Amino acid sequence: MENLIIVRGGGDIATGTIYKLYQCGFNVLVLEISSPSAIRRKAAFCEAAYEGKHEVEGVICSMAGSVEEAAFLLKEGRIALLIDPNGLCIKKLRPLAVVDATMAKANLGTYRDMAPVTIGLGPGFYAGKDVDAVIETMRGHNLGKVIYEGQAMENTGIPGNIEGYTSERVIHSPASGVLREVRQIGDIVKKDDIVSFIESDSGIIPVKASLNGILRGVIHDGYVVKKGLKIADIDPRKEEYDNCFTISDKARCIAGGVLEALFKLKGKRHDICG
After folding, report:
1. Whether domain 167-235 has CATH 2.60.40.1820
2. Whole-angstrom distance between the N-terminal and C-terminal Cα of the chain?
3. Does the 4-154+249-273 domain belong in CATH 3.30.1340?
4. Residue boundaries of the structural domains of the chain
5. What is the pLDDT of residues 30-73, one digit of tens each?
6. pTM of the model
7. Which SUPFAM superfamilies match (predicted)?
């Protein structure tokens, strides 16, 4: 298939890239795990792994049950999602490019010869060795910058600052177990409101809001979590309801870097590969 881009990962950051590539006329196949752990899942195409299909900003991503079904969806002009965490379909489909957007902070199996163009988002990749280009994902002056030799900045583990709040915005699981959703994404919450429960071996443990604001994201109901895992995100700006369901400025900026790298490398690798 011509102009096929395979994107590994369908989280909210990856969705910015998937959306941009699709709008620019590329065929886009998303590879995911069976139970994605996206927090901002209403703005993430990986939600299709749970719901069968998911729409973000007017664009629908549909889940495929096989490589053949994925190819059919792509030929119909749709974004397809396939459960293939190891990328086994890549060799068969021979895409123009592979973008590793898993945001795992480590390279979990993407290598340079997977496709004519390979691009990694964030730390864990070395441009010029295991991928052709790396996109900077750290907020700041270099966000979205294309790196053709070297690595992105290391992850600090500190969320972006919103109205003076950083780490306070993020809620981590107080125990290992199964998450049960209580409040919905987009709900207004107050500090110490119960937003979900963890069904653990020691009983039902409440998960409380860390501050006043809007519940921008929470991991999918029924997800098996480990103690300390990031499971929810609160935005203190109560008026920013639409942000719960739309692509973020960060994701759009990174998507621009991917597009830049793709067009630059596409020509170079074509000359090299004939």
Report:
1. no
2. 17
3. no
4. 4-154+249-273, 167-235
5. 999 999 999 999 999 999 999 999 999 999 999 999 999 999 99
6. 0.93
7. Single hybrid motif
